[in-house]
Write a structure and sequence with these properties.
- By secondary structure, the chain is of the alpha/beta class.
- It is built from 13 helices and 17 strands.
- It has 2 domains: 145 residues, Aspartate Aminotransferase, domain 1 (Alpha-Beta Complex), CATH 3.90.1150.10; 244 residues, 3-Layer(aba) Sandwich (Aspartate Aminotransferase, domain 2).
- The chain has a 7-stranded mixed beta sheet with strand order 4-12-11-10-7-5-6, sandwiched between helices. Strands 1-2-3-15 form a 4-stranded mixed beta sheet.
- α12 packs across α13.
- The longest helix has 19 residues.
- It is globular.
- The structure holds pyridoxal-5'-phosphate (PLP).
- The site of pyridoxal-5'-phosphate has 15 residues, from α5.
């Protein structure tokens, strides 16, 4: 039975897949079953932060797996406590963490925390969570409702939970807030929505306003977090201290994990929230090793160098193809090239693949780049050289 038939017969068809069969990865390079290599500018959608086949991470995971993978949250989990302590250090203000298994789950936890805050803190319960258009917060029934993109709100999944609404812009948030609003949830750089980074001043102004109103600011850093912006949190770059921050994608280098990080430590109590898998030995040990690797990579100056080099490369390819692209978007290693239209985007992704480069789509017309943070200069050179060849063959 060929791979495609097997997949289509036995796996539910929720994805449009490419049937390349990857067998191995080394940092930002992937190899398929025929030995063909691909430069990976996707890192599994921002997940493989320390690169493919990372030896330190693999050794930590294998060591942990040989000893203990899971015991449950009924007992102390040393790597969980150590990872939470490490997160506390890296965040730079006083927070505690709840561990989940994914970004959507982390956002669910954040929403639950906000709802209970709204109950405890005010005479008349506040419960509404405002999000932004073009946001993406996950695929569970609640987080898909929180996602500000109509095409995700399929009528056949209804009814959806109440208490969510979307503002068109940051400015509209101010007037959309009412007496029942408990939280604003946003991404500092909208990932899936088109790699759109908000202005620092606008975010700081909003954060200050929300603080005065005692409305929680939830920053979804599932994609922007874990050094992707150049800092541990994009919130650090924006110089804000959100009430709640969620992480997931890059936190454990590819092992499923999610985190709800908050300075409101006394809202959730025993029994309020939980997870069978969340924060188990395997995922938190992987998280700890991933953060150790990335922290020293940052301290050595290599992360900042990689960020700069990638930006130069991206800007020069942007300049070389004025017929295809209209802007460079994003920050750090969370980047986009806004295409003139969706047709160009489709062609760019297909041609890149033919030439051995993996890239992503975001929104309707943005070519998205989320390389491993440890990508080497040689891999960047080779990837952009291949992209140049690929883009030359696009016929408009
Ligand atoms: C990917 C993503 C999510 C969802 O994460 P999952 O692990 O797929 O549930 C939520 N928010 C943002 C900003 C994301 O990029």
């Amino acid at each position: 039975m060929n791979h495609e038939l097997m997949d289509k017969t036995y796996v539910l068809n929720t994805y449009t897949r490419n049937y390349v069969n990857f067998k191995q990865g080394i940092n930002a390079t992937l190899f398929d079953e025929n030995g063909k290599d691909y430069i990976d500018f996707t890192s599994g959608i921002g997940v493989v932060s320390v690169g493919h086949g990372n030896k330190r991470l693999a050794d930590a995971i294998s060591d942990q797996a040989r000893n203990l993978i899971h015991t449950s949250n009924l007992y102390f989990i040393e790597p969980q406590a150590k990872l939470a302590k490490k997160i506390h250090e890296l965040v730079g203000f006083d927070v505690a963490t709840f561990f989940a298994n994914s970004g959507a789950e982390a956002n669910e936890g954040a929403i639950k925390l906000a709802r209970k805050y709204g109950e405890k803190k005010f005479k008349n319960k506040k419960y509404k969570v405002l999000t932004l258009e073009h946001s993406f917060h996950g695929r569970t029934i609640t987080t898909v409702k929180a996602t500000g993109q109509d095409n995700f709100h399929k009528s056949y999944f209804s009814p959806y939970p109440e208490g969510f609404s979307y503002s068109k812009t940051l400015n509209e948030l101010y007037t959309d807030i009412d007496d029942a609003t408990v939280a604003v949830m946003l991404e500092l750089v909208q990932g899936e929505g088109g790699v759109k980074a908000f202005e620092k001043e606008e975010i700081q102004k909003l954060a200050k306003f929300l603080k005065e109103k005692e409305i929680l600011l939830i920053v979804d850093e599932v994609q922007s977090g874990v050094f992707r912006s150049g800092e541990f949190l994009a919130s650090t770059l924006y110089e804000i201290e959100p009430d709640i921050i969620t992480l997931a994608k890059g936190l454990a280098g590819g092992v499923p994990i999610g985190a709800v990080i908050t300075k409101h430590k006394d809202i959730l109590e025993a029994g309020d929230h939980g997870s069978t898998f969340g924060g188990n030995f395997l995922s938190t040990r992987a998280g700890l090793e991933t953060l150790d690797i990335l922290e020293s990579y940052k301290q050595s100056g290599m992360l900042d160098e990689a960020l700069l080099y990638f930006e130069q490369k991206l800007k020069s390819i942007f300049k070389a193809f004025p017929a295809l692209f209209e802007s460079v978007e994003g920050l750090g290693l969370m980047r986009g090239l806004r295409c003139k239209d969706g047709d160009i985007l489709g062609k760019a992704i297909a041609k890149a693949f033919e030439n051995g480069v993996l890239v992503l789509k975001a929104g309707k017309n943005t070519l998205r780049f989320l390389p491993p943070l440890t990508i080497s200069k040689e891999e960047m050179d080779e990837g952009f050289r291949r992209l140049e060849n690929a883009f030359k063959t696009i016929v408009l």
